[in-house]
Amino acid sequence: MNFTPHSVNYILNIADFAVELVLDERMPQLPENYRPFVAENAAAAPLLTLTAGSEVVSMENCEILSSFDDLGYRQDVYKHAEGYAFEIYNYDGQLAAKMESTARFERNRVWLADTDILTKEFGLNNTLMIAFAFASAYHGTLMMHSSVVAKGGCGYMFLGKSGTGKSTHSSLWLRYLDGYHLLNDDNPVLRVTDSEVIVYGSPWSGKTPCYRQEQAKVGALVMLEQAPYNKISRESVVVALSSLLCSCSVMIWDRSSYDCIMRTIEQVITRCGVWHLECLPDEDAARLCHDTIDRS
To answer: Are residues 149 and 267 in the same domain?
Structure first.
């Protein structure tokens, strides 16, 4: 895989990992969502390098593994001799980016479509998020689909299928419970250390522009389910494992990263409470969830 040097080099600090991002003139400035994460220099060797430019990424000699819709946009995943390749299509079905990556995503080269700046940013955001999710998977880290509120250095993560009401439940905590703020509304990073489970803000937050360079110790993870009543219960280990697995980025065909993700999920479950909240979108649901977790 050839990586051509380009003009502007950035070091980002994402979840205490150094990420090297190299952009050429096709991306005239760093998108706003990355700016809170810019570091003056890397404290350690970069977790990954992503080089984005005009050199076309070829899908020749690639085997397609999967094509799937991710909340309205399409991703095609390929395998090649050195690792993986991806094609990313935007919500209008236009090809936004192609990426080729080494097997553990340490090096990634991205071609951005020669269209408007929003399409370029869409392509950059999705390819870098993919690269980060699977490069960091080998280091006790999960890229989660979750909305997170925090207070006093403690974070609470709300999980569930798209449309379940994760953002709505976060907004209820912000409205009715004192002192909470939104840490991330779609793609926080969960990391297991020797002593703690930590949730980090990230440059990716879905439709809500919440890009916080902030971290909090995980107080609990709550799987949401819409219901005509409010009820909360603690999930069993087996159900908790399934809930977390469904809520994080995985490539089931990549055995090495999948095994690492499973080990990380097991550590999260043993250290953190995982709850199931059947709920209405109302104040009582927020208070029931908060008060139950707070007493546990």
So the answer is: yes
Which of 167-193 are b and which e, b meaning 16 or more Cβ less than 10 Å from the residue's Cβ? bbbbbbbeeebeebebbbbbbbbbbbe
Q: Of 94, 124, 139, which closes a domain?
A: 139
pLDDT at 239: 95
Mean pLDDT by 10 residues, the chain (296 residues): 61 96 84 94 86 86 87 88 94 92 96 89 96 98 97 97 92 97 97 95 95 97 97 96 94 94 96 96 98 89
Q: Judge contact between 38 and 30, C-beta under 8 A.
A: yes
Return the residue matching tokens 């080998």.
Answer: 138
Domain residues for the domain of 203 are 142-295
Which pTM does this prediction carry?
Answer: 0.94
State which of 110, 139, 168 marks the end of a domain: 139
268 with 135, same domain?
no
Number of domains making up the chain: 2
Report the candidate in 89, 195, 84, 174 with the shortest Cα–Cα distance to residue 131: 84
User: Is 1 part of a structural domain of the chain?
Assistant: no
